[in-house]
Amino acid sequence: MRAKSNISVIEWDTPLTESKRRRRIYCVINCLAGSAADIQREAAHQAFADYGHGYEIESIVEICARPRFLTQIVRHAIASGADVIAAGGGDGTISTVANQLVGTNIALGVLPFGTLNHFAKDLGIPLDPREAVEVICHGAIKWVDVGEVNGRYFINNSSLGVYPAAVRVRERWRPLVGKWPALAIGALTVLRRFPVLKLGLDVNGERLRRRAPLLFVGNNDYSVEWPDLGERERLDEGCLSVWLMREARRLALLRSAFSLLLGRLHLAQEIEASRVESLTVNSRRRRLRVAVDGEVIPLRAPLHYRIRPQSLSVCVPAM
């Protein structure tokens, strides 16, 4: 592959015989990921050298680019005959790579170099770079579910309302003040403006009409109780978890956030929760801003959500 100005390619030039090959591994590391420091990337490089014996390590690509260019890199890896495509970065990077692998026999390897790393944690993938590489080279392959909205897949969750609005403000401020101060500015801005959506929902055969500041759709069940708050016990139950805030008031939003922090969201009266296999969201707006694994994208209404059971193969620790 020919390197461009913002890509460095390290080729592994030690030839391996076909009899020794078990997995043909292609790795892409996104240098824009939240905490993907140089020391983590160097550890990953060394780990592939240490653990990659008996495998064909096609190349390791380091790229500082947005999702469109990252998608091109992954498509090149697929065309090259990769068995495993390892993605180094945060949940957004992992999701971008996963979107190209859904429905294929190519496994996703996860190098969790982001800030939160929800997907890796829920699969039990180590956060240490060397241990994560060992999982990619020597771990098991597991099939997991993904969510889908209007043809876009998500490995964690999707949402409408206050969260996408806060992310848009955060991204404007992030280059100036950093991620966490920008997030605080986004939250305060959204609380002041408080966008409310008029939605029609088809849920489990029932039609609902709601004025809602927030709709959350998760890939499988999220825990809302301590000590497992925000975690998923399984990623293969074949369901979407839907959380709808039905009270369009700032106080209700703050009360729900406080209940979440206490691990008591299931007791919040302003929250409607359900488990579904599919969900349709209608709106008078032609386009809605939707957060999909942390990235805000415009999608044309209506939104058609569904679960794609066991449609993505992932490298996970061997039992």
Helical content class? 25-40%
Give the CATH class of the largest domain.
Mainly Beta
Number of helices: 8
Distance between the termini: 36 Å
Shape label: globular
Task: Characterize the quaternary organization of these chains.
Answer: single chain
**Number of domain units:** 2
Give the name of the CATH architecture of the largest domain: Sandwich
Walk across the major sheet and give the strand order.
7-6-17-14-9-10
Give average pLDDT, whole number.
Answer: 85
Number of strands: 17
Structural class: alpha+beta
* SSE sequence, one letter per element: EEHEHEHEHHEEEHHEEEEHEEEEE
CATH topology of the largest domain: Tumour Suppressor Smad4
Characterization of the model:
The protein is an alpha+beta fold. The chain folds into two domains: 7-138, Probable inorganic polyphosphate/atp-NAD kinase, domain 1 (Rossmann fold); 154-310, Tumour Suppressor Smad4 (Sandwich). It contains eight helices and 17 strands. It has helices spanning 38-51, 67-79, 91-101, 118-122, 129-138, 162-177, 179-193, 250-261, and strands at 7-11, 24-30, 56-63, 84-89, 107-112, 140-149, 152-154, 157-161, 197-203, 206-212, 214-219, 240-245, 271-276, 278-283, 287-292, 295-300, 303-316. It has a six-stranded antiparallel beta sheet with strand order 7-6-17-14-9-10. The chain has a six-stranded antiparallel beta sheet with strand order 13-12-11-8-15-16, covered by helices on one side. The protein has a five-stranded mixed beta sheet with strand order 1-3-2-4-5, sandwiched between helices. Strand 6 (140-149) and strand 7 form a beta hairpin. The longest helix has 16 residues, at 162-177.
